[in-house]
Amino acid sequence: MSSAAPTTHLWLREETKPMEHRAALSPEVCKKLLEHGGFEITVESCKERIFADSEYSEVGCKIVPGDSWRQAPADAIITGLKELPENDQTPLPHTHIMFAHCYKQQGGWKDVLSRFVEGKGLLYDLEFLQDDKGRRVAAFGFYAGFTGSAVGINAWCHQQLHPGEKYPGIKPYPNEDVLIAETKEKLAKIGKMPRIMVMGALGRCGSGAVSYARKAGIPEENIVKWDMAETAKGGPFQEIMDVDIFVNCIYLSSQIPPFITQKQIDADRQLSVIVDVSCDTTNPYNPIPIYSTNTTFDNALLDIGSSNPKPLQLCSIDHLPTMLPREASNQFALDLLPTLQQLPNRATAPVWTRAEKLFHEKVASMATTN
Ligand SMILES: NC(=O)c1ccc[n+]([C@@H]2O[C@H](COP(=O)([O-])OP(=O)(O)OC[C@H]3O[C@@H](n4cnc5c(N)ncnc54)[C@H](O)[C@@H]3O)[C@@H](O)[C@H]2O)c1
Question: Quick one: 285 and 172 in the same domain?
Fold first, then answer.
């Protein structure tokens, strides 16, 4: 970092979405930024956050009351994960880093962008912080796959231990060790190991899904790992019907033949649990075209109708990493760290200049888009 660069002031705001325990900056990452030099970090107090306020103050962050970012100094970069509260339409004079969900013309996108225009603020959208190859610098994928795999294995265990009973609601876990211990205990009671197939196993979500299966003690020969090479022949695939649990983690970028059809699930099969981590639920090319709604932590599993009496349950939760807020936040923040370290020189750092250019393009597009 150039010694002439002024201190960069990051302001971690309180998340206000119900059930959101994750944070964009973890105490570990704040510590690294403060040690790196050139940073000042203010953290809004937040009871819902998985990290206690004291974890931040212990590493040198200043703690301020929740929801106080509107009064932050003009040069503070307001950092958060989720959208700002929708009921507030005041102009935004600060620079914000967050997932604003307003670049793909989502409902209310112009209202969000207009607030930045009116306040002369700037948005760096976390979804669009990309490296030179166009790949996101930070994403929650690994822990989405990791927790998705956990739900899949736990759901299969539930089918064995409590046949016909509703799967209990899922609550966030304090850390992954608690979750892994729970799965291991269930598997030990059953006394046999399921076979699990991870589709898109080479990707972020896929490697997380494989990692959970291994940590739960499922032997390597029971973990079927497929990616592009294996699906090149085109679906549907009988191999999916022959495992107990199917975890779909692909990044769908074009039309592909379905992996699974209703005809297959009506026929004899081993498969009884599907976790669709990819959640291309409403995409016309959804490769699992046997359902059309996302599931929730309270009602995690859908019963898929079939003329085969063997149950088939499907999980399609689109915010899986919330299940392990501590590890998911820390991994996300660690992925973001090298990019954050470039903030003091953001006027020349490609990740930040691209994100700023995109913001201005999206603002300009408001005039030409209905
Ligand atoms: N449910 C959730 O909570 C949640 C959270 C984060 C991400 N996601 C979603 O998970 C999906 C995957 O994200 P990612 O970050 O892991 O992507 P990624 O690009 O890191 O990995 C995707 C993998 O899928 C493979 N793939 C693509 N098409 C395939 C095909 N036809 N057959 C076999 N393999 C194929 C790729 O080769 C790659 O290895 C995305 O749709 C993302 O939006 C869901």
Answer: yes
Q: Give 75's Cβ-side CA count (13 Å radius).
A: 9
Q: Is the CB of 206 under 6 A from ligand 1?
A: yes
Model pLDDT, residue 1? 44
The pLDDT value given to residue 370: 75
Does residue 285 have a known ligand-binding role? no
Question: What phi-psi label fits residue 34: left (phi over 0), alpha (psi between -120 and 50 degrees) or beta?
Answer: alpha
Residue 135 belongs to some domain of the structure:
no
- Total Cβ atoms within 10 A of residue 47: 9
- Annotated catalytic residue 357: no
pLDDT at 4: 54
Q: Are residues 12 and 121 in the same domain?
A: yes
CA distance 5 to 8: 8
Residues 6+ apart with CB under 8 A from 370: none
CATH (domain of 317): 3.40.50.720
Rounded Cα distance between 151 and 301, Å, is 9
Coil vs helix vs strand at 175: coil
Q: What whole-number distance in Å separates Cα of residue 40 and Cα of residue 77? A: 10
If you measure from the C-alpha of residue 265 to the centroid of ligand 1, how many angstroms do you get, rounded to a whole number? 23
pLDDT at 5: 61
Residues of the chain with pLDDT under 70: 1-5
Rounded Cα distance between 41 and 244, Å, is 47
Answer whether residue 168 is part of any domain. yes
Same-domain status, 169 and 63: no
Please give the Cα distance from 171 to 337 (Å, whole number): 28
Q: Is 231 annotated as a binding residue?
A: yes
- Residue pLDDT, tens place only, 188-222: 999 999 999 999 999 999 999 999 999 999 999 99
Per-residue pLDDT reduced to its tens digit, 166-190? 999 999 999 999 999 999 999 999 9
Predicted pLDDT of residue 18 = 77
What is the Å distance from ligand 1's center to 199 Cα?
A: 9
Does the CB atom of residue 275 touch ligand 1 within 6 A?
no
- 360 in catalytic set: no
Range 88-110 burial, b when 16+ CB lie within 10 A, else e: eeeebebbbbbebebbeeeeebb
